[in-house]
Amino acid sequence: MSVIYERVAFIGLGLIASSMIHAGRRAGLQGEIVGTARSPETRAIAREDGLCDVVAETAAEAVKDADLVVLCVPVGAMGKVAEEIGPHLKPGCTVSDVGSVKRAVIEAVKPHLPESVHFIPAHPLAGTEHSGPRAGFAELFENRYTLIVPDGDADPAALARLERYWAGLGAHVEIMEPEHHDLVLMVTSHAPHLIAYTMVGVADDLRRVTDSEVIKYSAAGFRDFTRIAASDPTMWRDVFLNNREATMEILGRFIEELMRLQRAIRKEDGDLLFDYFTRTRAIRRGIIEAGQDTAAPDFGRGHGKGGTEG
Ligand code: NAP
User: Fold this and answer.
1) Distance set, CA 9 to CA 180, 195, 204 (Å)
2) 132 pairs with which residues across the strands?
3) Could you tell me whether strands 118-119 and 94-97 are parallel, antiparallel, or unpaired per DSSP bridges?
4) Cβ-count burial of 130 within 10 angstroms (0-12 exposed, 13-18 middle, 19+ buried)?
């Protein structure tokens, strides 16, 4: 594939940025990669591993002459980073991000960017429960969607270029409107994380079940919650604080559904439970048919080997 951006700057060098770097290198999508991270430790790792062609000390320095700048920091840190880089951006460049929430990021970032740059937010729907500059891998985005989420009209050429870049990283690319993005992601990602956090928290509180039993018998469903509940605390704190309205709406609905099932169990309404579980099973089938998960039993884990995560 040919070079799409001469110089790409990554602000934040965690799981998502390092995966983009590996995938972009493999496909030859950029001439030069510049990166920076907040801590000297992460910058040292990036230098040691040769993650970027240039590791800059500051975000302001990293964005100089970049054709594409990608903000890969937690959602709550986007505004501050935008404020720092705003005066140093090359006119005509594209600024994008990978934040899991879009309306709040747009509100935090946009005021700090000059008119002369194209701000086109994005969100790759791919991740693992691991973080940091060594967590990334080139295949992360393959067969996964990346949503490009412009705020109103984006420059068609800049938009098409960013779409080509994400497609080059291996993703299926779709365009979505910010409010719709935040609601869809609340259902598909954010609420399940919140439920996993509470489920694991509840198990931790249940002293009747000893810790060793929780771990020993975890394959009965609990293990899948623990993987989600191991996700980065900073990232997920910021997701909920920055998508409050959609969280409240979906949580309200979730509590109603839970109470419906509670009532059905109390009243021994087996028909309701059976119909409900039949409907949810069909949703799982749809996800497999769409190629978004494996049909292999137990998510394709090798039994007795501890399974394959990520
Ligand atoms: P990560 O592995 O934890 O890396 C985060 C990076 O941001 C690190 O380089 C960190 O610097 C830096 N950072 C943290 N707090 C900061 C602050 N207050 N100011 C400036 N820099 C800061 O995170 P990630 O998983 O790559 O996530 C990055 C973004 O992608 C987030 O907005 C997240 O919502 C989004 N996202 C994540 C996933 C996922 O599953 N992980 C999926 C899609 C989108 P240090 O290393 O120096 O601390």
Assistant:
1) 28, 35, 42
2) none
3) parallel
4) middle
Domains of the chain from N-terminus onward = 5-176 (3.40.50.720), 180-304 (1.10.3660.10)
Collect all residues with Cβ–Cβ distance below 8 Å to 139 and sequence separation of at least 6: 23, 170
Ligand 1 nearest atom to the CA of residue 16, by list position: 26
Q: What mean pLDDT comes out for the span 166-184?
A: 97
Rounded to the nearest 5 degrees, what angle is found at the Cα of 309, between the Cα atoms of 304 and 310?
165
Which of 25-34, 49-58, 286-295 is least confident? 286-295
Q: In the predicted model, is pLDDT for residue 283 greater than 80?
A: yes
Is the pLDDT score of 130 beyond 80? yes
Residue nearest to atom 22 of ligand 1 (CA): 73
Find residue 94's DSSP bridge partners. 68, 118
CA of 231 relative to ligand 1 center, distance in Å: 11
Which residues does a 6 A CB cutoff place in the pocket of ligand 1? Answer: 12-17, 37-39, 42, 72-75, 77, 81, 98-100, 123-124, 127, 131-132, 135, 232, 235
Q: Minimum mean pLDDT among 80-94, 95-109, 180-194, 212-226: which range?
A: 212-226
pLDDT cut 90: percent of the chain above it: 75
CA distances from 240 to 66, 245, 246 (A): 31, 9, 9
Note the pLDDT tens digit of each residue in 6-18: 999 999 999 999 9
Amino acid in the structure at residue 298: D
Q: Which residue puts its alpha carbon closest to atom 4 of ligand 1?
A: 14
Tell me the DSSP string of 86-106. GGGPPTT-EEEE--S-SHHHH
Give the dihedral of Cα atoms 67, 108, 100, 286; nearest 10 deg.
-100
Nearest CA to ligand 1 atom 46: 42
Rounded to the nearest angstrom, the distance between the alpha carbon of 36 and the centre of ligand 1 is 12
